[in-house]
Specification:
By secondary structure, the chain is of the alpha+beta class. The chain has a domain at 3-62 and 89-98 and 137-221: NADH Oxidase. The chain contains 9 helices and 4 strands, in the order ααβααααβαβαβα. It has helices at 3-9, 23-33, 52-73, 77-86, 106-120, 127-135, 157-176, 192-195, 230-233; strands at 45-50, 145-152, 180-184, 204-213. Strands 1-2-4-3 form a 4-stranded antiparallel sheet. Helix 1 (3-9) crosses helix 7 and helix 2 (23-33) packs across helix 7 (157-176). The structure holds flavin mononucleotide.
């Protein structure tokens, strides 16, 4: 594909077909992503790739965790505390979940959420349908492949920066090969289910996940949230 087409056609895919992804294709797009630049060429990231039975196990475990935490959210405080003490329910990711967004970013976050629900025909007040859509994150939107991106904690924000560049290369390579992707912060809520499946070096922190596969022909995949204008993006001069 033409580079500009790849760049502009990539969008977050939230419904996947059951068409499998060939192992050679997965290797090819990971190799493409390795062409990314990084801080002193340290390439401070690792990737866990789940397919087949492994992706099915993770789909099940993460969906169960989310269902339990969602139920707990509506429970009285003492139940929440008891669950925290018992362990195994609350998020155990490497980074704290973002519960409160900065005031200047919150409107864009809200507009993007509303746009998605509008595309799906879900009313603002329909909390059950919204929760169900949120839950689909944890079944990887039915994708046949789930990836998890880890960044080395030793370089702080710079590892995350490099991992982000790597992630974009991966997503663009996937688009170029007719595949769809959705980067998902939601998939970094729990680390322990991944520890059970992969050898993860302790210096590597779970940044986000990525669902990957061939896009399904569903309305959710038509959603295109808008972008800042250049005026909003570029800082003004003092003079
Ligand atoms: C780091 C990162 C985390 C994201 N987390 C989620 C997520 O948990 N669930 C989800 O549905 N989309 C998630 N997204 C997708 C964004 O919502 C999406 O990129 C944004 O709305 C722009 O839309 P587009 O990707 O279709 O251009 C994430 C994207 C990035 C880059």
């Amino acid at each position: 594909m033409d580079f500009n087409d790849v760049l502009h056609q990539r969008r977050s895919i939230r419904a996947f077909s059951d068409r499998p992804v060939a192992p050679e294709t997965l290797d090819a797009l990971l190799a493409d992503a390795l062409a990314s630049p990084s801080w002193s060429n340290t390439q401070p990231y690792r990737v866990a790739v789940a397919t087949g039975e492994q992706v099915e196990r993770l789909r099940r475990v993460l969906s169960e965790r989310f269902a339990r935490v969602a139920t707990l959210q509506r429970a009285p405080a003492w139940k929440k505390l008891a669950a925290a003490v018992r362990g195994g329910v609350l998020p155990d990711g490497d980074f704290k979940p973002i519960l409160k967004y900065p005031a200047d970013l919150q409107p864009r976050r809200v507009a993007t959420g509303h746009g998605l629900y509008q595309t799906l025909g879900i009313a603002r007040s329909d909390h059950a349908a919204r929760d169900a859509q949120m839950a689909r994150n944890f079944s990887f939107f039915d994708a046949p492949v789930a990836m998890f991106i880890f960044a080395h904690k030793g370089l702080g924000a710079y590892s995350a920066l490099d991992a982000g560049i790597f992630l974009q290369s991966l997503m663009l390579s996937a688009t170029n090969r007719g595949l769809g992707t959705c980067a998902q912060g939601a998939l970094a809520l729990w680390r322990s289910p991944l520890e059970a499946e992969f050898e993860i070096p302790k210096d590597y922190q779970l940044l986000c996940g990525l669902s990957l596969g061939y896009p399904a022909d569903e309305v959710v995949n038509t959603y295109r949230p808008d972008r800042r204008t250049l005026d909003e993006l570029v800082l003004s001069n003092r003079t």
